[in-house]
Amino acid sequence: MEELKAKVVGITTTDNEIIKNTTLSQLEINGGHSANICYTQKGYNEILQEPLEKTIERAEGNKRNRHHSVFGHDTIQIYFEGIPKILAMLINNEHEYNTSEKSGRFTTMFGTEKENKLYNKWRMIFEQEIKRAYPNEKYLTDGMISKKAKENARYLLSVFMRTKMKYTTSFRQLNYLYDFAQKMIDEETDNILKLELKPYLEEFCQVLYSTGFITNDISDYRNREFSLIKDDNDFDEYFGRCYSVNYDSSIPALADLQRHRTLDYSFSLKPCIEFFIPPIIEPRRDLVDEWLEDISRVSLFPQGLIVNVNETGKYEDFIMKLYERVCTAPQLEVMQITKETLNRYVNALSTSTSPSDEKIYEELLQYTHGARCTFPGFVCTEQCDFKPGKMLYRKI
After folding, report:
1. Considering just the CA atoms, what is the radius of gyration of the chain in Å?
2. Which of 42, 149, 285, 323 has its CA 20 to 30 A from that of 253?
3. How far apart are CA 170 and CA 262, in angstroms?
């Protein structure tokens, strides 16, 4: 029996000299070498020694016959500056990636002059309201209150707010993203969000092309496109081994939710404009009215805009999301959405006579007693001792 062995034959790098000297041709040649693994008895070292013209010929053949997976071995790390938030969400919704994005919870965000003025105004209001609602609460330190205030103030900023992110994906997927962007640019549509996006997508394509790693020979051929924005996102709901659920969400909450790449997300605009109202100000009608007035005039598409979201996946992956998002630490809206989905899941299965559904129902019941610190097998390394957080009735 052949012995199992492993050899590292490629690795991503941040070495500037290597990056500068890496060419499109080299990435295509590596694809040709990868393809030969499928077609030959030779070992990898022998494959690397074959004549260059044969490798190039094979790579060209793979591009023609659309066997693009061989071009997925090389990954490219890109640091985007000035990328619109909604565009970051578009590419984050395609599952083949890693991303590190400037946080609207931990850092100060910036939009237009008008947005910045309202953002700073409401940061102060939220800090005051948090202190008023939770006086002498040890968990809510000055730093935590500042974080929670920023988390809520960002709802006022436009979905086209420029931000920063590091994005890593494969050579193949980078070309697919370029193709998806071109498709959305060329699409005839009356969707006002897609129309607003087109100039940013054109800018995005120019930036991707400038990397030197875009080729017209590698593009998606399966009629795929960006999966996030739909014209009609009204799908039937069901709960079982797999599930599909619809709910309202703001843009920042959806941006957080979609990062669970085991699950699928899409959204469409609602027929009537609605905005998220932070629960911390709900008891004060004067602040609610002021909030709605400010958010309605700051931008055509503020991040606090409510959209129709569809979430689809397997129940095991939903449980994994419970462990990550039913807690005091995540943003409030995300926790509330996840908790409500769990309640709907449990209620839907409670009357089912299917043995499979009954099994899932019993498993999900274990997660209905509070935050993740009450979940089976979970050990919290940072006890918050914040009762409203643990029992899931916090307002911040």
Report:
1. 24
2. 285
3. 18
